[in-house]
Amino acid sequence: MHLWSRELWRVAWLATLGVIVGWLFDAPGIGLAAGLAVCLYYHLRQLRALYRWLTLTPNQEPPAAAGLWGDLLDRLYRYQKSQRITQNRLRATLSRIQESSEAMRDSVVMLDRHGDLEWWNSAATDMLGLQAAHDRGQHITNLVRDPAFVRYFASLSYGEPLTITSPIDERRILECQITLYGDDERLLMARDITRLHRLEQMRRDFVANVSHELRTPLTVLSGYLETYSDLAETLPPRLGRSITQMQAQTRRMQNLVNDLLLLSRLETDQGGKDHMPLALAPLLESICQDARALSAQQHEAPQQIELEIESDARLLASEQELRSAISNLMFNAVRYAPPESRITLRFVDLEEGGACIEVEDNGEGIDPVHIPRLTERFYRVDKGRSTATGGTGLGLAIVKHVLLRHDAKLQIDSHPGLGARFRCVFPVSKIAPVLTAR
Ligand code: ADP
Known about the structure:
alpha+beta, Helix Hairpins, 5-stranded mixed sheet, 13 helices, 54% helix
């Protein structure tokens, strides 16, 4: 403000001097104009110096000037200097980030809000075949054309990673994960999981082969045991008891082998081929009947098993797989809920769309700490009890896999003493469209 008022004083002083000198020559108007012209000349000179400095030598020190102009030039110079320092710091940070992304073995691809390629590291060139020379600005789905990737990209729900084969080498398996950031921009990370995938494949094949190989010897053993048990009356009592126990254990092993084979088939086969519109009433009715028969066999006092069908939706599903999943849930309820308890199998529409098959019992329930791990193979809350009731430890793993193949989810709700509820939630896409008569 101080400099500003000095500048005003300077103009006033020159104008007054011009008027006085003009007055001496009897022309105060011309004197005033001459005073103001000197002012204007001075300011135009400073403006020219500023313009030349900014356009020709912006990195050098500003031209010397006094008063308001000097202060203005100093401030501009300081502001420019601090901007340059910030810019250099940002540039260094950016190049450090680029260098570290470059050193990463995983692919990193930055996409703009339309999904066009902006930047990627050399691992992305190697895994996804992106070429710096001509791919910048191209849409990612023009280069990674796997339909599963195109669907994943368009879905905008990137909670889970996606596994695809590399677009340039079909022997390589990649795990892709997209993250949304900033203004709808996307970061695509891809990891080479070929080795892991191969190991997983080997594990699956091994389990499937061993289970398959065990089938024949077990059938022979159980056949002989059957014959011996027919002769039990002629055998000494100790031998008779051993044969009964051997029969029970062979049956357990057969169940285990069958469950392992089913599970490896569910894991290896691509699901969805045999999905067709399925009316659930007859299927659920027959599962209920099986459950009643098992209940009568396992418990002295019968359990109350009810079926509630509140939806007439037809699911696009595999009947065989659904039967196996729902039977597992029902048989678990029968085996783990005490005699006289109530078990309900329910089929309902969901408010948010889709449908749900649920199995509810009012038995002893499960402590919530176990719930996240229940669908793991061989995870048991109470090992002794599970074995005694004839469980293989694979039931809920089978349910989970069947539901995965139907894009459905398993939700488990339970508290100790308050029973358990297992819900199979099917999305709208799995509801068969209703056919209307013309
Ligand atoms: P298992 O063959 O041992 O039954 P599952 O995978 O079918 O194996 O079940 C895993 C565990 O979940 C069981 O060991 C049991 O402890 C628990 N569980 C399953 N269903 C119920 C239920 N309805 N009530 C209480 N516990 C249950």
